[in-house]
TrEMBL record:
<keyword id="KW-0732">Signal</keyword>
<dbReference type="InterPro" id="IPR055353">
    <property type="entry name" value="DUF7619"/>
</dbReference>
<dbReference type="InterPro" id="IPR036116">
    <property type="entry name" value="FN3_sf"/>
</dbReference>
<dbReference type="InterPro" id="IPR035914">
    <property type="entry name" value="Sperma_CUB_dom_sf"/>
</dbReference>
<dbReference type="InterPro" id="IPR003961">
    <property type="entry name" value="FN3_dom"/>
</dbReference>
<feature type="domain" description="Fibronectin type-III">
    <location>
        <begin position="33"/>
        <end position="124"/>
    </location>
</feature>
<dbReference type="InterPro" id="IPR026444">
    <property type="entry name" value="Secre_tail"/>
</dbReference>
<protein>
    <recommendedName>
        <fullName>Fibronectin type-III domain-containing protein</fullName>
    </recommendedName>
</protein>
<dbReference type="Pfam" id="PF18962">
    <property type="entry name" value="Por_Secre_tail"/>
</dbReference>
<dbReference type="InterPro" id="IPR000859">
    <property type="entry name" value="CUB_dom"/>
</dbReference>
<dbReference type="Pfam" id="PF24595">
    <property type="entry name" value="DUF7619"/>
</dbReference>
<dbReference type="InterPro" id="IPR013783">
    <property type="entry name" value="Ig-like_fold"/>
</dbReference>
<keyword id="KW-1015">Disulfide bond</keyword>
<feature type="domain" description="Fibronectin type-III">
    <location>
        <begin position="253"/>
        <end position="337"/>
    </location>
</feature>
Amino acid sequence: MKKKLLYSLVLFFSFYVSFSKSYEKKETLTCPDPTLNSASAITFNSVTLNWVENGTATLWNVLVLPAGVPAPLPSTTGWLVSSVNPFVVTGLNPNTTYDFYVRSDCGGEYSNWSNLVSATTLSAPPVCGGNYVDSGGVSANYANNSDTTTTICPSNPGDAVVVTFVSFNTQASHDALYVYDGNSVTSPQISSSNPAGSVPGGQPGGYWGTTVPGSFTSSSSDGCLTFRFRSDATINAAGWVANVTCNPIPCEVPTGLAVSNVSDTVAILTWNSTPFSSGALITLTSDTGVTYTVFSGPGIVTMTLQPDHCYTASVSSYCSGGYSEPSAPISFCMVDCEDNAECAESLILNAFLDSNNNGIKDTGEVDFNHGNFVYQLNDSGSNQYGYSNDGSYFIFDSNPTNSYDISFDINADFSTYYTSAVSHNDITIPTGSGATYLYFPIVNVLPHVDAQVTLCPSGQPRPGFSYGNVIYYQNNGSQTIPNGTITFTKDPNLSITSISQTGTTATATGFTYDFTNLGPFESRYLLVNFAVPTIPTVNLGDLLTNNVTVQIANDINLANNSSSVTQTIVGSYDPNDKMESHGGKIVHSAFTSNDYLYYTIQFENTGSADAEFVKVQDALDYQLDENTFEMLGASHNVDTKRVGTQLTWHFYNINLPPTSLNPSESHGFVYFRIKPKAGYAIGDMIPNRASIYFDYNPPIVTNQFETEFVLTLGNPTFNTNTISLYPNPTTDMVAISNSAANDKIATVVIYEVSGKRVYTLNKNTLRDINVDVSNFARGLYLVELTSENNTKVTKKLLLK
């Protein structure tokens, strides 16, 4: 009985256990445990988990525990709820190991916690003021098979990251650190000279070995640097330690400032924008001394400016930290279409010798240049005067409502032989009319021959160098001159080195030349070059005088048959200069009311490209009688305009080459005569200077030439003609020489063009002074010299 009872109990227990296990298995299968995979996408504060859902759950609990704590129980709390798989765990601590579990939420029933997955977060990215170290930290080696990317950005916008390595050690040719200037590996690489080597990925330009690289400073607009480290599967090393700092991004000075598309009121300024700049500050100073500023976006600005004014411009970059220093300045001038001959409408005035007296310019009839056009604008009563040396004078005007009254005046010396009776009145220039020609026939009432000769300087005489004179001879008459003779007499101190004309005959004092068949109004020229002796054969301040005459039969005007030019020997000279042929001194008793002053303005293109057009301006001194002005010659076709005492010469389409490319063709000049007003006395001095404009550039102002009326030609007095600076331009030393015998230099002051004084010499006792300027900044300076008699002279000095 006991055995049966015992057997029954055993069977019942077996059935119960079997039933319980079957029931437990059934319950487990309704919410199966998920399978947690390894962690991925590990950062310094996050880990990405993904798992295999073995059932149908759509919600999960994710549990994050410190590494090494006991496994969780069903009742453990503190888990995160996720409805996505994979799931990103955030808010983790850098460089910390965590244990991760996940369980399925089956609608209020839960699976068991999954298998354990552990992961260690990365070190926190370096920050400003911190360190950047490899994955092994400061005491361990980096890991094999590393491929880590670290981006370091500044905490303050406008700063730039600077990474300075303290130590560096990686396996050469196998493990490399790559550096990028920006916030990703797609930014520009800051490369080393290393090849790809055996580094995984095969990219060149990485840093390896034990040579400490850098430092590295971001030039990216975001101020970031990115580092990517790759190592192979074998040997590793100590890695690196670097300091991270963040500095305000330097606001760099712009470069390449240039001007283009200049018109009468508009100019476009462009420059090279700098990194980090969000704009620019343009500073302009006009020739009237007014300074103003304009804020612009980076790289380009269109300026609306005042016509017929010159400007100096500079640009400063604007960055978050403020403004950079200004760029190197440029200077330019606003021009209208009268300056560059680009007006759409114009009047072209032409005076010609009407040989058949029909009032029409026929083929073969020559231009008449011995006079000037007189015109009024809108019946203003104020005359303007135009002169042409090639027959055609241009009037440019973009206002179609303006009207002109125009006539032609013949020079007094020719009024006996020619007449002009035609005038044009109420002439307008309608929009779209283009070029309108107006002709002025000149009638010869008394046939005659008249030879004229003119001697013009070409350069200035310097000891040991060469210079030249140009002889112009022309027929001012209406009949051909069958033959004539040019006689040239040189200064005794000079030697003739060349003559452009063949067939000359040398004489003891110069040469002669016999010409033939000089037609009506025809002009020809000869260029004569000389060698100037060295000191002491000649001295600075000595005068050299050359003379030329022309002889023909039956010449009706002998007054224009001779010409002379006197020039002062100088130590250096500006190729853009002005001089008067008497040499600076005129004996008062020898100069009559019939005599003229003969001025030459010389210019030279010392730039680097052709000058498309040149403008020369001369404001006549009040002691000169503007009504006696006469143009005598010019190197190129030129239009001359006189308004009151203001003279302007326009060389349109001159295309003057630079001296560096074509020295012989890079020069030009104008030559004119004018009388002083009555009443000049001994001791009176007439100053004159000119301004020369090449294209859109600001003017080059010539020397001031001073003509003094004296009792006799004695020792020279202290003035700009007796002072020379040599060499000029210079690099280190300049000699200041004074050829005035009766006055010494007392003080010397040198100024920058801004007015800042940079050198002073007081109580000088020497006639010649040497000044060391080697420590001066390169550029243009003004040298002010004061004599013992308190006479002041200012000269220009250029340092290269």
